[in-house]
Amino acid sequence: MQGHLRLRGKIWYVVIHTTVPYRSKKNSESEGRRKATTKVQWISTGQTSKREAEKILAQKLTEYQSNGAAQAGRQTMGEYLDQWLTDSCEPRLRANTVKQRRILIHEHIAPEIGYKRLSTVGPQDLVRLYRHLLNKPRKDGKGTLSPRTVAICHTILHSAFKEAVEMGVLTSNPASKAHPPKQERHEIVPMTPEEVQAFLAAAETSRYYALYVLAITAGLRLGELLGLRWVDINLDDGMLSVRHTLLRSGRTVQERLAPTKTRSGSRSLALSEMALNALREHRRRQLAERLVAGPAWTDYDLVFPTSKGTPQTDSHIRNRDYARVLKQAGLQHFRPHDMRHTMATLMLAEGVHPKIVQERLGHSRIDMTMDTYSHVLPNLQREAANRLDAVISGTRTGNRKTGSKKKR
């Protein structure tokens, strides 16, 4: 809402601009889509003095804000969260993120507190909600909801309440006083060098062999691998640029190929000789596939598309090809993301500087890298101590051998 003064004749008027939501007419291209228009209201101040008119302007703005906040506070939690998703989340967040938030709200949050008025929800309501969700069975029947899922619900509610406070609808954020359940830290189980060799040997016949080599040697996420384009790779210079990630949802391929979330996520990586050889062979196979497909091939310049050139789904890689390779290699159930952990763990174990590992992973801060791979640190500490011993011992030996004699 905005307001200003306008002079008509000798009288000053208060002009109030308010945003009013509405739904588009039926049978239009955007049927049922929520939109907004600006409503303009002129109010005479009855004043010829601009200074007096400015006082009335300030008074009117305060009244409108108070009335708007009171009206919004009478909304139910379900109504407010739906409006928050549409008005606040959709314009600034990725489609995947909005989809996840909408699912969690409709399946877990709204059924429990959606009927309550926004202004009456307190910390105790949220504490009871979290306790209930921890005991709620999962859809697949595999136990109950995880602490991580409940923590994400808490994050959603905290963001929604925070915006309500900023808009003057609430005076405080109840989620700030309701602590989510403690999350168990997921134990990282990287592959050993022997397991990597067995895995890659089993993957040699897969059309996604190069994808697995890149995941293990460059540490790309699965979404980054599926969003990789040939224009991002320079086989002559041996460099790869991570610019996009493939989202699971989107109306067009262009919408699904989203830029990386953070500035550090966009990065250039030097490729190993193994990765370059795998990519060159993969390129030859893809060109042959393209000839076989003929007009059925859709060119999006993707490095790891389907056999028709269209974007591949991460579920296909995860549940079909990757699972088959793991079984053939006789390995335990490593997640695709564990290939990324494997690269980082092996590099740190080989003495590669953590800053280099951070840059390859695309972490925004080095403490994130060090905290994630703290399981490698004890061995690095021990090796560093042994190296220091060797340096000191060598220096002492050198001093005894080459030390100058005292002058008499």
Helix percent reads 40-55%
Class based on secondary structure composition and strand pairing: alpha+beta
Q: Tell me the CATH topology of the largest domain.
A: hpI Integrase, Chain A
Number of strands: 8
Oligomer: single chain
User: What number is the mean pLDDT?
Assistant: 85
- In CATH, the homologous superfamily of the largest domain goes by the name Intergrase catalytic core
Based on CA atoms alone, the radius of gyration comes out at 30 Å
N/C terminus separation: 93 Å
Proportion of residues in extended strands = 5-15%
Per the principal axes of the C-alpha atoms, what is the gross shape?
A: elongated
| CATH architecture field of the largest domain | Orthogonal Bundle
Report on this model:
- It is built from 15 helices and 8 strands.
- By secondary structure, it is of the alpha+beta class.
- The protein folds into 3 domains: 2-24 and 33-73, no CATH class; 95-177, Tyrosine recombinase, N-terminal domain (DNA polymerase, domain 1, Orthogonal Bundle); 193-376, Intergrase catalytic core (hpI Integrase, Chain A), CATH 1.10.443.
- A 3-stranded antiparallel β-sheet has the order 1-2-3, covered by helices on one side. The protein has a 3-stranded antiparallel β-sheet with strand order 4-5-8, with no helix packed on it.
- Strand 4 and strand 5 form a beta hairpin.
- The longest helix is centred in the last third of the chain and has 26 residues, at 377-402.
- The protein is elongated and about 85 Å long.
- Mean pLDDT is 85; it is low at 20-36 and 396-408.
